[in-house]
Amino acid sequence: MSEKAKRWMKAAGIRAVKTMAQNAVALIPAAATIEAVDWKVILGTAALSGVVSMLTSLAGLPEVPKEK
To answer: Please, which residues have CB within 8 angstroms of residue 37's CB and are 6 or more apart in sequence?
Structure first.
């Protein structure tokens, strides 16, 4: 794997994890107890947001400059 590909994978992975965490936190409702949270929905939505983030990163990442 090239050095550029490694940098891209690292940057895209970090973005995806951050996006997943943001979506998971946003979906946790103000429930009376933590047991009332539907964790399957939260984890599924967070995973989907991670996939979407990786696909969006294919358009380019400012953290990984384009080669001239």
So the answer is: 28, 29, 31
Q: Say which DSSP state 65 is in.
A: P
| Mean pLDDT for all residues in the chain | 88
CB atoms within 10 A of CB 6: 11
Give the integer Cα–Cα distance in Å for 34 and 42.
Answer: 13
Q: Which two tokens stand for residue 46?
A: 């967070």
> Is the whole-model pTM more than 0.85?
no
Q: Which residue is associated with the tokens 């979906």?
A: 27
Question: Tokens 């947001």 appear where?
Answer: 49
